[in-house]
Amino acid sequence: MAGWTLDDIPWNEFDRSRVDREILPIIKAAAIVEYNAGDYRAYLNRVFHDDPRVLKAVDGWADEEVQHGVALGKWAELADPSFNFDESFRKFVAGFSLPLDANQSVRGSRTGELIARCMVETGTSSYYTALAAATDEPALKAICQKIAEDEFAHYNLFHRHMIRYLSEEKLGMWGRFRVAIRRIAESEDDELAYAYYAANGSGQPYDRKANASAYGQGAFRYYTPGIVRRGVGMVFHTIGMKGDGFVSQTAGRIGWIALRLRIFMLGRAARV
Predict the structure, then answer these.
(1) Of 56, 80, 105, 202, which has fewest CB within 10 angstroms of its CB?
(2) What CATH number should be reported for the domain whose range is 12-221?
(3) What's the pTM value of the predicted model, to 2 decimals?
(4) How far apart are CA 272 and CA 267, in angstroms?
């Protein structure tokens, strides 16, 4: 998987004049979520406790996710000297925890669990690809490019293990589709909203709707039709359909329309 370290980021090229103040809040939130990979590591280690191949993969994946959080947090502190990443992360873990204490997959099978991981990596690969294209701040662009490459590698990693488990568990295409859709829907849960609040809150009580809206408007605006189509193709590939076929391409166009509608609705909700 990844072979980069924090020393590979061109920190000496950081240019505060090129910091996009609309990107900054979502980078702060992303740093927290990435850094919180330890919870998922513990959960996945329980789910795959007797599979050393997956356990090794999970440990490598989690270490890289934590590094993503460190890199993004360091950049955010450079961009906004008033931001304290460690303090924001402590605020996050004090007010939010994931329900991941199960010893078996909450997805119903190990195949389902790996499908869910593929969906997460599809989303993050798309997200950081969009941010890398949107920013012209040199250090952030390098960070996002490297993270996007990592997340795509993570997708392939989990996908390989998913294929291995499919031969044992025989989860059909529609079963895979249901797991995928449920996991995509969970992107609207409290984790990102509370991370946004922990990183950007001004001392006000947590308002899930307001913070979810702020995060969504901030993040989704940087997606392009091509990035959406690529993400939809990865979803189709996961459930066993052609990622570049007519149905996938059509779904990608529908997905782009749905995303624009979602941004509009979030904006309208924020004005109410």
Answers:
(1) 202
(2) 1.10.620.20
(3) 0.93
(4) 9
pLDDT by residue (tens digit) across 2-48?
589 999 999 999 999 999 999 999 999 999 999 999 889 999 999 99
Calculate the CA dihedral of residues 189, 220, 155, 179 and round it to 10 degrees.
Answer: 40
Note the pLDDT tens digit of each residue in 143-187: 999 999 999 999 999 999 999 999 889 898 999 999 999 998 887
**Structure tokens given for 184:** 């995509």
Measure the CA–CA gap between 195 and 215, rounded to whole angstroms: 9
Q: Which residues contact 172 (CB under 8 A, 6 or more apart)?
A: none
What digits encode the pLDDT tens for the residues 74-100?
999 999 999 999 999 999 999 998 777
Domain boundaries in the chain? 12-221
Q: Which residue has the tokens 């996945």?
A: 44
